[in-house]
User: Fold this.
Amino acid sequence: MKLDANRLGISLGGATALIWIICSTLVAILPSPMMLITGHMLHANMQDLGWTLTLAGFFVGLVSWTICGTATGWLIAKIYNRLTKPTAA
Assistant:
């Protein structure tokens, strides 16, 4: 079975964009709990740090992460398709 690299890339890009929007919303609404969660995820003490969340930063992050997600999905499908090519017996 081959994967459609473009569809997988667009799907992963869309999922990444949705996760970015949810995460940014949570940071805006609940900054302290999100900082605590981030610290646990990174195995670091993040309590003395603060968030910098601006509208411009939100959009730059949204576009950047969406492009990275799309490219990653496309690359995964391309590699998968190369690895699953039938071998000559």
Q: What stands out?
A: The radius of gyration is 18 Å. The mean pLDDT is 93.
